[in-house]
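Note to self: user wants both folds in one dump. Writing first protein now.
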Amino acid sequence: MKKVILILLFLTFFVCTLSAQIRVAVSDFNNQTDILFLDGWERSVPDLLRANLSSINEITVLDRSRLDKVLEEQALSLSGLTDSTSIQEIGKLAGAEFILSGNVDRQAGEYVISADLIRVKTGQIQTEIVRSADRDYLDDMIEMLANNLIFRLTGKGAYKNKETFTSNSLWYWSGATILFGTAAFITNTNYKSNLEKYDSATELKDFEKFYDKANDSRNLYSTFAILGGAALIVTIIDLIDGSVENEISSGRSANVLLNNSIKLTRNDEIVFNVQINF
């Protein structure tokens, strides 16, 4: 009897836990540009977001095939789901509370990922956006976007508005300046030493030996001095420009509820209504 009660309690807890989870269906992200490499983002962004959202216990990410099957059966595409009734119907059939889709774009010299979070129950659309001037920071953009979506869905963590990445080039060029400067100092010392030995030599073979060594040391000194000077110039430029390498910023749009309908009146007139609530 006790075992039965324990099993029932466990099943009750398990069912309650599942019901408490937020069910999200992640669909397509569309490339809004003619930039070819953003086609790769179009494919990878949904997968990366699924992985990030799935790591949160409170969120259940539905299998993409389930949403695709429902859309196929209804002969619809997610891009056409602006009608709240359609959104509610598709979400209900897919078993999702939220549908996530969006775009990748290039605006004002920045790469932009926008994610539309559609609440199935109400048709409300909330948009999260991340921007970066550097295309090499896709993973960091996804991490910030996922963080803010998780905050929206669960309230967990803190909303991130900006993340700044400092450049390591200042340290690289400073190190190069020190390295080449040290090499120039050593080769210059060797040059002076061999020159003194050349001046004090008394035999012909010593003249030739120390002359060659002094000449080689002088050539090396000139090379290291030029490289050290160039590295110093770049170090100064980096220092003046600052050490910020890239900045990722986020934003959110106003909450919008879209309702539209088409009605045929008794006078054979077609009436199209659109209601937008902010």
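First done. Writing the second protein, which came from a different request thread.
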Amino acid sequence: MSVISEELFKRNLPELFYFDDGSPVTPENWEARRAQLLEILSSEEYGFAPPSPEKVNVTVERHEDGQYAGKACVNSLRLSFETDRGEFSFPVMEIVPTGKKNCPTFVVLNFRADVPDKYLPAEEIIDYGCAILRIYYNDIAYDGEDDFSGGIAAMYDRGKYNWGKLRMWAFAASRVMDYLQSGTADYPDLSRIVVAGHSRLGKAALIAAAFDTRFALACANDSGCSGDALTRGKKGERVGDIVKTFPFWFCEKYKSYSGRETEMPFDQHFLLAAVAPRRVALGAALEDEWADPDSQYLSACAVSGVWDMLGRKGFITPDRLPLPGDCFSAGCIKYHLRRGRHFLSREDWQHYCTYILEL
């Protein structure tokens, strides 16, 4: 048995490649299996979201040419759409390389409204020829306990939609995608639109890509527990830890798995698999023991066969656990492990920008 096979065997993961009735998953029925994975993730972990709105309206509140030493224009946008309880709107910052067309485009969920920001080195990203649309996550739903009474949570019946805030932030990323797909913006390469985030927002980025096939790639940095890291056998943060501190990120059902992870009918490789056959880029940090870089890596290993089955290259890696400085990017699943702590660094962004340019 190979090193990776042995490590995965120890985790005793729920089966990806068979339906509940025992019939095998094939390329022809993959979309049916993917729909099942999304149903499980919705009912057991992230909650169900409302349907997409019929139309997203965009207002340009401010336009600034010649920014970043003349290398970009910056637009302050406001996106609005109808909900079950009236109109909801939120601001988006748009940064576009001057004169560029067919730009790879990052839809970035960020912890602060500032651009640039310590997590968002905007000038460096536009120097790669990439455009940026920044969402400040608290503009969508407050990252705290408010009994789902504010932001977008207040716009839908809680009895009908039991979504947690991770799913709400992901929903906002899809509304930015609606804008990009509308033809109003003339710069994006629609085949290279990426959703990106760090930590809890890395989880939301994966959720957005799993449920919205228009995203070509999800860049999830240090997303760890309830994100890209396998839960079974995981070091650091576990379900009990995360639901105690952040119960509002999830649906109510997820709390029931506190201390009962081995009974879950899923694990986080289901989330990665739901992005296939599109791409996933995972970033890990050596000292981020709470996220557990090995469990992030093994999750990528566990789903590689989905891409292989679909005729694409999955996760191409040596038969060992990751080492600092590793960057495996030859397939549709990318993983890098840098030195240092839990952070979205310039080094991480360089990995993601390089990878998007290869799409």
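Dump finished. Worth passing along: The longest helix spans residues 30-46.
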